[in-house]
Amino acid sequence: MFTKDFYSVIDNELTNLVEKYGEDEYIQKHKGAKNNQKSYALLIWFLEFYGKRQNYKDYITDGDPDSSCDIVFDNVNNQGERVFYIVQSKWNNAAKASPEQETSRDEILKALAEFETLLRGEKRHVNEKLQAKLNELDKHRKNNGAVKFVFLSLSHYKGGADDNIRGFVKQDEKIQCEIIDIDRIKSDYIDRFYKGIEPVNPLEFHQNPEESQFSLEIIQDNGKIKIEKPFEAYLFLLRPKTIYDLFDKYKFLLFYKNVRNPLLESQFNRDIERTALENPAYFWYYNNGITAITSLLPTIGAKANKIELTGLQIINGAQTVYSIYHAYKNASPTKRKQMDTESLITLRLLKSGGKDFDLNVTRYTNSQNPVDDRDFCANDDIQIRLQNESFNTNVWYEKRRGEFREVPENIEVVSNDIFADAYLAYYLQEPVTVLKNNGYTKETGKDLNFISYKDHKDGIYEKIFNEKTNFEDMLCSFYILNIQMTLSESSYEEMIRSPYFHILALFKTAFTKYLQAKRGEKINVTKHIIKIYEQEEIDTILQTLIFVNDFVHQKIVITDNEEKNREIFFDFLLKNFHYEKIKEELEKLEISVDDIESIVLEKVAE
Q1: Into how many domains does the chain fold?
Q2: By C-alpha distance, which of 377, 398, 389 is closest to 461?
Q3: Which of 53, 154, 467, 538 is the most buried (most CB within 10 A)?
Q4: CB-CB contact of 523 with 513 (8 Å)
Q5: Which one-letter DSSP state was computed for residue 451?
Q6: Sheet holding 306-316: strands in order across?
Q7: Is residue 58 part of a domain?
Q8: Which domain does 86 fall in, by range?
Q9: What percentage of residues in the chain have a pLDDT greater than 70?
């Protein structure tokens, strides 16, 4: 989703809020000042979206004589700690929200100065509501209370004031500061409305469960099972309240190493909830339970009903955890008591055996449901980065099967396995590998694009996905693949059993030579292809693909002997030496502008 399109979505929502709360004194006061109205509406939107609070007037402290837009409020977080939140919003027009623009460092410094003034209690000429909150804030800090500052902006923050922010929070360990820019808002908006998962809430202090120590209540009435070798593990039972408390504290951070995040709504989840509420005594019989990994596994005595754990990740059973949490949260006190009396949930608790062991446990404990190799890579930093980069375009990168439950208009979702094949053929110039991995010689059940060389001798995950991989190059590769599929009238499945990925790779050489002849200067080919594709000016791409197709045909159909031609064809498809030989001939070929532009595009329809 282009930033300008997402900006329109948010700006329309702000406009609706201004109309909805048109009788608000502040909105009335600034009828002629759209900037002030929109900044105010952005605070309301923030409270409703992140805080899920509709009674915004209880939180926003603006009013005469204070002219800035602020929220100062306190809240008890998921650790039971009282925290003061101070939020300042900065509405930006569409031009300042463009990717080329950046949140001004001066704006951040000005906000930090304002925050510092609040901390020192030196803010003057404020309204009674704000003053009352500032008095509470001062008492809160004297009681060693935590404070979090949030700067909210509809522009792009690129880290220009990071040093200043670090210096600001360094003065007090009980202070946090966070910048919520348009990129963060867009990512969280996509998570909630298109993936169906709840984003991390900036109005909470979230502990990392992998680094935290906490108590876990267990049941040993029926005994426990302990595994000694090669890695220590326990199997025991939990009550629904324990699951509820665990998720309430850590939220979706519990599932960082899981191949699936729980969906907020699904039939599967509803079935689990129904059993937990209507037939709690049957729950253990119907449910497979949960598998978790912990960094430090304690020794558990025979009569222990509470254990201390450090570091926890649930690697199987995310849907179970979230469904129990949701059912328990909405249950009456009587129903909760019944659930805790009758329901049991199995927990397999394993000591971490290192990254490879943990990944394999995740892989095999999820094998009862169809899981692709690419799903096990979904939480890798590189996959997250590529997806986030894709959110600045109208082609979204799917890093996990089925993760987008809805898609906005004009957005295309493309799986990372298709991106990987296109990138491998076009950008990395390895079309033979694409066909071997996906077509004629593919090992059953293995997608080598998403398997490390450490786990399989032919795994190429690190070759495709590394620090040099960026979404722009992947997008360019996909665009050419998409045009090639249209030109050849082929499905993706047909493409991976044909020479079209080879033509895709050779296109890069031919089109680069054409652009050099046309422009007489160096040009960023990737950016140029993306630009003309998105502007629907793809004639020269089509003409170049036809040119390459004809060139390849001349090189592999060289005799009247059909059997010999077939042999040459398969050598070209599956042997690097034969492909490289034709590529070398194309590299030596002089390509003029007329060689490409004289091709009649009626051939496309032939």
Answers
A1: 3
A2: 377
A3: 154
A4: no
A5: S
A6: 213-217, 306-316, 290-296, 345-351, 233-238, 225-227
A7: yes
A8: 3-195
A9: 86
50: its two tokens: 């992140």
Closest CA to 150 of 95, 199, 83, 94: 83
CB 355 within 8 A of CB 454: no
Tell me which of 313, 342, 371 is where a domain ends: 371
Please report the DSSP string for 230-254 in residue order: SS-EEEEEE-HHHHHHHHHHHGGGG
Residue 139 has pLDDT above 70, yes or no: yes
260 and 157: one domain? no
Per the domain annotation, does 592 fall within a domain?
yes
Answer for the pair 50, 73: CB distance below 8 angstroms, yes or no.
Answer: no
Instruction: Specify whether 547 is located in the same domain as 403.
Output: yes
Contacts of 563-571 with C-beta under 8 Å, sequence gap 24+, read 569/499
**pLDDT tens track for 16-75:** 998 998 888 878 877 777 777 888 888 889 888 987 776 677 667 665 544 455 777 777
Output the six-digit token pair for 104. Answer: 């001004």
For 257-305, give the DSSP string. TSS-PPPSS-HHHHHHHHHHHH-GGGHHHH---EEEEEEEPPP--TT-S
> How many Cβ atoms sit within 10 Å of the Cβ of residue 286?
11
Taking the model in full, what pTM does it have?
A: 0.75
Residue 57 has, within 13 A of its CA and on its CB side, a CA count of 6
Distance CA 606, CA 291 (A): 57
Q: Are residues 504 and 395 in the same domain?
A: yes
What is the model's pLDDT at position 539? 94
Among 53, 36, 57, 237, residue whose Cα is nearest residue 129: 57
Last residue of a domain, one of 371, 389, 407: 371
Task: Give the list of residues 6+ apart from residue 300 with CB closer than 8 angstroms, or none.
Answer: 218, 224, 226, 234, 236, 307
Q: Helix, strand, or coil here: 307?
A: strand
Give 100's contacts (C-beta < 8 A, 6+ positions apart).
none
Task: Indicate whether 14 and 80 sit together in one domain.
Answer: yes
